[in-house]
Design goal:
- Chains A, B: Residues 1-28 form the signal peptide.
- Chains A, B: This is TRAP transporter substrate-binding protein.
- Chains A, B: InterPro entries: DctP_fam (IPR018389), SBP_TakP-like (IPR026289), TAT_signal (IPR006311), TAT_signal_bac_arc (IPR019546), TRAP_DctP_sf (IPR038404).
- Chains A, B: Keywords: Signal.
- The structure is a homodimer of 362-residue chains.
- By secondary structure, chain A is α/β, with parallel strands linked by helices.
- Helix content of chain A is 47%, strand content 14%.
- In chain A, the strands form two sheets. A six-stranded mixed sheet of chain A has the order 7-6-8-5-9-11, with helices on one face. In chain A, strands 2-1-3-10-4 form a five-stranded mixed sheet.
- In chain A, α4 (120-129) crosses α12, α6 packs across α11 (304-324) and α11 runs antiparallel to α12.
- The longest helix of chain A is centred in the C-terminal third of the chain and has 37 residues, at 259-295.
- The interface between A and B is large, with 79 and 79 residues.
Chain lengths: 362, 362
């Protein structure tokens, strides 16, 4: 049903039998028009606009030989059907986050964020120079997908809380919106986590269905107005010290591209990655200022005992997953070995410098 | 003399009268062959290979329509003549560091590194989303150059010292290799700085002409074998918390490019930037491990009073420069205003996360 409807909207030029218009190597000057489905509202700050940015770079780089039509969540397919839509060729490209697909492949968690894991620079080093991207290719090929890092949110925040958290006791029975593996870690310390859709967070906090909610960071949280329904902003990043945004291409569509257009998609992805990192850094800073000075938001950090308990709990949850899933084991081992190595320089470099800046009063 | 010699080596296809082969819009399928001169030995770790990487991305993205021949320092022009060579069109592209050109334009300092300034992510946010790149375009257009960030070293180290530094007193009269504005800041606290060429650092340390030397970081310093001639590695990054690598294009050659090839160069630059950041993160970590475990290098950090004195001194040096130079004032004001804004999120995000990681014992 959906496929027929989709072919109708494709319009002239689309081969009726094939869901995926390919560029034949014989007709190098033909325009390829692809659809990109996303898990975000159209133009959603940084994430939706990030998809637009990735598409625009592809068009510019290909001199217009490739056109990419970006679709917000729900336009062609719902947010949570992007993975299947691209794998099946309903659309040629996707823009989403891999940990949404834990139901399809547990290993996907590691290609977005890992609690107490690597920061943005360390993560990109793993992807581009540590075998991370090769492993992602391996995991996703089984689902007929070719993946690319197309962005990173940088450090995310721990969430909006209606009451202050002064002890581990204060966390007991709390109703918190936090999906995935991080949610399981929270469950392990006595919290009740709920996977509330983004659009329902505001109302759930307002009515008390939720006591707290984790969304992204200042820029996206301000856009959702969450400060109006929860007073305390916990900034203790633990669950998503960085979070990779995923671009996918239908593997057959990818393989059919000539080499220079493969380079176009791949380089556009890399440029989009750096562009989004840079954008989040400044927009988060501006939004944080707005939240604090204009909206009276109070910044807080979890007590040490909460962070320690979350660390222990998240390690348990991770171990349990990789014990039961060989693919997860393989990716996790690569991830953790790399983290141990690369963080040793983060510590004497980046971390030490930030301490110096604080110490001399910059 | 040099130009005639250069045209001889260009070979067939180069118009004898013009030093710069341009792509005419009428002949879209012609190959453009450009020369890229660099300030590094051919294939020098991360920096020389970074130039190769940038060139290779341009070739791949253009489907071979653009070919870029990379020249190590001294092949076509010496390291310190890259700026002029590209501005004059002796070569179409350059790969270097802007602060080498303080003699041409004082404002160039801010497009490499600023003592106690922004880290890598903050710097890229300023360049791509804070007006930094636009200002760089403005400054460099006057010298017939189009600039691009093509890499970043990440946090650099404070240098190799033959004796331990336990007080500000220990710095008095020290002979230290440290060029540019940072060198001037060191002079302000009683140190004698020398601008020794990279290739002479090893011998100068060995013979005692230098008591200490600042080069780059573990990866490049290991390549120079500096650990063999100085025992203490001071890791207190203060002078180059991040350092931008500069790619330049002769402005006329740039303007003559069709839009899609402009996009090729620009996107290749951005991808090269992220690639180098990622490479330095992992190679520095590996080299640091080698230096410490295989070569017995002892890591140290400057005493607080030294860092505080360096901060005061560097602020004085910066103020003096911008007072006397309007262009510097304009760039510096943009840089510092942006740093004040963006670092507020670094502090509750990246910095806080690294503290958390340390606290829970990851």
């Amino acid at each position: 049903m959906q496929r027929r409807k989709f072919l109708k909207t494709l319009g002239a030029g689309a081969a009726a039998g094939a869901a995926v218009p390919f560029l034949s190597t014989a007709s190098a000057q033909e325009t390829i028009t692809w659809d990109m489905v996303t898990s975000w509202p159209k133009n959603f700050p940084a994430l939706g606009t990030g998809a637009n940015d990735f598409a625009a770079r592809i068009e510019r780089l290909s001199g217009g030989r490739m056109k990419v039509r970006v679709h917000g969540a729900g336009e062609l397919v719902p947010a949570m059907e992007v993975f299947d839509a691209v794998g099946e060729g309903t659309a040629q490209m996707g823009h989403s986050a891999s940990y949404y697909w834990r139901g399809k492949t547990l290993a996907s968690q590691f290609f977005t964020a890992v609690p107490f894991g690597m920061n943005t620079t360390e993560t990109n080093a793993w992807l581009y120079h540590g075998g991370g991207l090769e492993l992602w290719d391996e995991v996703y090929a089984k689902h007929n997908l070719k993946p690319f890092p197309v962005g990173n949110t940088g450090t995310q925040m721990a969430g909006w809380f209606k009451k202050e958290i002064n002890s581990l006791e204060d966390m007991q029975g709390l109703k918190l919106r936090l999906p995935g593996l991080a949610g399981e870690a929270m469950n392990g310390i006595g919290v009740t986590t709920v996977n509330t859709p983004g659009s329902e967070i505001f109302t759930s906090l307002q009515t008390g269905v939720l006591d707290a909610a984790d969304w992204v960071g200042p820029y996206n949280d301000l856009a959702f107005g969450l400060h109006q329904v929860a007073k305390y902003y916990y900034t203790s990043a633990w669950n998503e010290p960085s979070a990779i945004l995923e671009g996918t291409v239908n593997l057959e569509a990818w393989n059919a591209l000539p080499d220079d257009l493969k380079a176009v998609v791949s380089e556009a992805a890399m440029a989009s990655n750096l562009a989004m990192i840079s954008e989040f850094a400044v927009r988060n800073a501006e939004a944080l200022d707005t939240l604090v000075s204009e909206h009276g938001v109070e910044l807080r950090t979890f007590p040490d005992e909460v962070l320690e308990a979350l660390y222990a709990s998240s390690q348990e949850v991770l171990e349990k997953q990789v014990e039961a899933d060989e693919e997860s084991r393989k990716v996790y081992d690569s991830y953790t070995a790399f983290q141990q190595k690369v963080r040793r320089f983060t510590d004497v470099g980046e971390f030490a410098y930030l301490k110096t800046r604080e110490k001399v009063g910059v």
